[in-house]
Amino acid sequence: ACRRLGLPRDMVDTVAWLVRSHLDMSEVAQRRDISDPQTIDDFAALVGSQSRLRLLYVLTVCDIRSVGPGVWNDWKGTLLQSLYLTTRDYLEGRADLDRPARAASLFEQLLDRLNPDLAGRVEPVLARLGPNYWLSFEMADLTRHARCIDKRLEQGGDDGQVLEGVHTRVDRPHDATELWVLCSDRKGLFADLAHVIASCGASVAGARLHTGPVGPDGSAQVFNVFYLQNADGRAFGSRNESGRLTLMKRAESVLHSSNRRLSIPTPIGSRRADAIPVVPLVRFSDSAQGDVTIVEVEGRDRPGLLSALAAVLRDHDLDVLSAHIEGLGEKAVDAFYVRRQGMDGHLPKALRRRVRADLVDVLSDPESVAA
Fold first, then answer.
1. What is d(CA 103, CA 9) in angstroms, rounded to the nearest whole number?
2. How do residues 147-181 score in pLDDT, each as one tens digit?
3. Which residues of the chain fall short of a pLDDT of 70?
C-alpha cells in the first residue's frame, strides 16, 4: 500500500517494520522484567534506533487505547513509559547496565536524601534487599518505602530478624492501590498473598517481588509490591476504606503461615465474554543469565486465577521472583520468572512437562481454585 502511494523506500520499510512489530513493545513492557538489563538489551536490538523507538511507542499506545473501553489504564501507561525511557537512554549510551553498581549508587542516593537519624535506622533493613529492588522503583517510591519502614520500626518492628509489616497506598495518578508486604521469605508466600487479594475482590494489575539474599540468621527479607484494581479498572478500595482494611488484615495473617481457606467472590457472568474462545497456552523461555526460567500462561480470566496458577508453581517448589500480569478483555496473559528451590540453571524438560500439564488443567477448569 505504501509503494502504491509513492512513499520513499525508507518510509515503506519503516511502516512495514511497525506493522510486524506492533505488539512487541506491549508484550515486553507487560510480560518481562524491564529492570533486567538483558530485557533492555534485547529490546534495543529489536528497535535499533531512536526514531523507530519513538514511532513504536506512539503506535503501541494508540493500538492499546483503540481496542475498546477498559483495556487501557494508567498502569500500562507507566510500564510503557518506563520501557521507552530506559531503552532511549540505552540507545543514547546513557544507560549504565552494571546492576550492582547502579543499585549501590541508588542506595547511597536514598540515604543522602533522608534525615541522618532516619537513614541510620532504616539502612540495616534496606541493606537486606537485593539489587533488583533498587532498580525497580523511582527515587520517590524508594523514599516512601524508607519512611514506611521507619514507622514500622517505631512500632516495635526489627528485633535483629527480618522486618515484617503490611501497608496500602492509593496511587491516584495511576489509578491503582499499592499493597506493600514486608516479611521473611517462605515457600508459597506469593500464592497465599494472591489468594488473599482475590478473596477481597481485588485484581492484580502488576506485581514487583523482591527477595534479598539469605542472611546469617538463615532468613531473607522480602519486599513485595502488588498493584491492585477493582473489576472496573479503578484503584481497589479507593472509595471503600473497609475493603483496604480487610485486605491488610488478611495479608498480615499470612506473613507467618499459609492462609486459611477464604472464599473468592464470583462476578456476574457475561454471555459475550463466555462466547469468545480462549485456548489455554503455556510457554517456557530461558533467561540469558541461565538461572531463571520464564513461564508464560494464557487463558480465560476469572477471579482467583492468579492464586490458582501461583499454587501450581508453589507445589512444584518454584520460587516466583517476578510476576507480570496482563488482562486483555476476557483473556489473562501472565508471566512468571521462576527458580527451582535448590536448583541452579533452567528447569529440566521433565519438570517443565509436569508444570505445563498442571497449569493447563487450571486454565482449562473454571472451577479450579488454589489448594
1. 44
2. 999 998 888 755 556 788 999 999 888 788 999 99
3. 70, 95-97, 157-161, 257-276, 288-289, 328-329, 367-371
Query: Whole-angstrom Cα distance, residue 316 to residue 192?
Result: 15
Report the relative pairing of strands 331-340 and 221-229 from DSSP bridges: unpaired
What does the block give as the cell for 128?
A: 537486606
pTM of this prediction? 0.82
Closest CA to 358 of 294, 318, 315: 315
Q: What is the DSSP string of 157-198?
A: --SSS---EEEEEEETTTTEEEEEEEEE--TTHHHHHHHHHH
Is residue 47 within 8 Å of residue 87, measured between CB atoms? yes
- Cβ contacts of 190 within 8 Å, gap of 6 or more: 209, 224, 310, 313, 314, 320, 323
- CA distances to 158, 183, 185, 243, 323 from 221, rounded to whole Å, are 11, 6, 6, 27, 18
Phi and psi (nearest 5°) for 172? Answer: -65, -40
Q: Which three cell numbers stand for residue 336?
A: 512468571
Query: Rounded distance, CA 317 to CA 354, Å?
Result: 12
Instruction: Provide the H-helix boundaries in the chain.
Output: 9-20, 24-31, 37-47, 50-65, 74-91, 99-113, 116-126, 131-135, 139-154, 189-199, 241-253, 271-275, 305-315, 349-364
How far apart CA 241 and CA 228 sit, in angstroms, is 14
What is the C-alpha separation between 73 and 67, in angstroms, rounded? 12
